[in-house]
Amino acid sequence: MSPPEQILTRPDGTAIAYHHTAGRGPGVVFCGGFMSDMGGAKALALEAHCASVGRAYTRFDYRGHGRSSGRFVEGMIGLWAEDAGAVLAEVTTGPQIVVGSSMGGWIMLLLALAWPDRVAGLVGIAPAPDFVLRMWEGFGPEIRRELERDGIYRRPSQYGDGPYEITMSLIEDGRRNQVLPRAAEIRCPVRILHGMADPDVPWAGSLELIERLGSEDVEAVFVKSGDHRLSTPGDIARMQAVVETLAGDPA
Predict the structure, then answer these.
(1) Is the dihedral of CA 229, 232, 235, 241 positive or negative?
(2) Strand partners, 123
(3) Which helix (H) or strand (E) holds 87?
(4) 124-170 residue pLDDT tens
(5) Which of 141, 129, 115 is nearest to 175 (CA)?
(6) Roughly how many angstroms between the first and final C-alpha of the chain, as a whole number?
(7) Closest CA to 205 of 220, 188, 184, 215
(8) Which domains, from first to last, does the chain contain?
(9) Closest Cα partner for 213 from 178, 180, 184?
(10) Which of 65, 116, 134, 220 is buried most, with the most CB atoms less than 10 Å from its CB?
(11) Catalytic residue among 198, 206, 215, 235
């Protein structure tokens, strides 16, 4: 049974919804993806696993996502990273294994840079650091003009959850919060899971991340038939095993 939802109020009044399971350390914190929420299959499966082994676990929604307050269209990488940092600082105690899915992989790397004494390890699931820069590079002239003129572009989503609202503010903030140029500063253990059939975040990007990381304790599993979400029963079991192995032997 999931623990009750709680609210962490940020200084600007934003309400960050979260669920926290008490337990032994190191704990596990799940950072979701772009337009995702803490009720996804991976977040819930990790919660169930951590409860079964008595490990502390926290899942939350960034502002403008899921059950947290705020408008998604006003969100930016820097603000979402601040939300994650507040959860790390105010909800959890002791060292944490941070699991980041897709955009959450960018957020987890920012957390590792900002909180090196609290982040004991990272698990990236199709991690997408600096993805808004690649998104901008992939936009044609018409879309770029639309963003510069209107400040927003509504990109169709193949996952049935409505269009992705891409703002010029998101692009500009993403440039300010680039993490790959600073990845050499990250020294904690890192594990990466990535599907080679991922249509959204090419798996070669994880190779670039591995090359840039300062940590020598880095391992990756590439799933040939795996998609972006990696949410099949086999994918879930693999994620749980990787997280527990890393949590059981943190740096």
Answers:
(1) positive
(2) 99, 191
(3) helix 77-90
(4) 999 999 999 999 999 999 999 999 999 999 988 766 566 888 999 99
(5) 129
(6) 31
(7) 220
(8) 6-129+186-248 (3.40.50.1820)
(9) 184
(10) 65
(11) 198
d(CA 127, CA 1): 29
- Number of neighbours of residue 218 by Cβ within 10 angstroms: 17
State the Cα–Cα distance between residues 223 and 196, nearest whole angstrom: 6
- Which among 210, 237, 212 is positioned nearest to 223, based on CA atoms? 237
Helix then strand then coil, % of the chain, to nearest 5? 40, 25, 35
Alpha-carbon distance of 42 to 238, in angstroms, equals 11
Catalytic residue among 36, 68, 101, 102: 102
Neighbour tally for 244: CB within 10 Å: 18
C-alpha span between 126 and 103 (Å, rounded): 9
Q: How many CB atoms lie within 10 A of CB 176?
A: 9
Residues written for the chain = 251
pLDDT tens-digit series, residues 16-72: 999 999 999 999 999 999 999 999 999 999 999 999 999 999 999 999 999 999 999
Report the number of secondary-structure helices (H) and strands (E) in the chain.
8, 10
Structure tokens at 44: 């819930």
Whole-angstrom Cα distance, residue 22 to residue 89?
A: 15
**Is residue 228 annotated as part of the catalytic site, yes or no?**
yes
For residues 7 and 1, the answer to whether their CB atoms sit within 8 Å is no
20: annotated active-site residue:
no
- Give the containing element (helix H, strand E) for 137: helix 131-138
